[in-house]
Amino acid sequence: MLKRTPIILLISILLLISNVQASDNNTVEYPITITDSSGATITIEKEPGRIVSLMPSITEILFTVGAGDKMVGGTEDDKYPPEAINLTKVGRYTTINYETVVQLEPDLVILDEANGEDTIIRLEDLNIQTVMINPKTMDEIIESILLVGTITNNEDNAQEIVDGMRQTISDITDSTKGIPDEERPRVLYIVWDDPIYSAGKDTYPSDLITMAGGQNIIEANGWPTINLENIVSADPQIIICSGMGGLSYQIANNTRNNDALETVAAIKNDRVYPIKDPNIIELSGPRIVQGLEVLHLYMGDDWEQKDYTSLTDASQPHVDAADEGPEEEGLVQDGGNATANAPGFGVLLAISMMVLGYMGSRRY
Asked: Residue 329: its pLDDT value, please?
């Protein structure tokens, strides 16, 4: 059994305090010069006091390092932590209301490549300073947290969070890195079931599956469709179902009840698992280590005996309740174009359209 890791408990405590103050030990001396994810060299003259975030993952990072009290605006997709819901909204991540941004008088806007080049140009034309955060790997997520900590004079908080994340990652990967390929369970991670969209090789879910001790059966990059015949041929031993707004449960039920998949090992052995909050796996923020823990729980035959005190009911449901799904929660996936409540018949067509946009976006 892996030793218990406190990182998610620490993150939760920080996020529950809406006005977390910077540690007295933080001694960032401005001006500072940093290099952002675009490779741009940026000088920040003074400690930012009015920050706008244009991506949910960035909002989570800001609150986690203790800069939530410096935020004056975010997107309509910001749902976590709960305090983020109260931020003044500046539109969706691809449809920014620049008039609202200007009215907020930010001294810094932190954005992502997925916001689009036009957004960057427009903000520059408005003489608003920007920093791009665009992590594509676990290491880059950690670097982004440290960078935000430096920018906002919360270096100690950021370092503490990162140290905990690294410990969680090390605890798990030290136990799985020696597993030979032939002993790793074959895993299929799907985000829609008609047609079946899956997580390919260059996605966070695929990276986490490998770190957790499994092997992704999808060889293609991105979020490709996969037909039923190929699934039967690959014979995944575990199927992970992820869907916005509680659709994970519907996708899992549809998958379990698909007659064409009845010979698949995951179906026969009842190893189809819905993810209550896909954002802990698909969003590039500090909670991604919680997603790693969830996936590691499911990788081995002994998953019921593994224990993580950092996992909570809010992040992942008990498997025996999987058929019911959550009664509430609107979930958003970074770079996607949808936020939905628990699904009913009328939302299915809309979700189908949203998924098409979601699949075309970058990895989370």
From this structure: 32
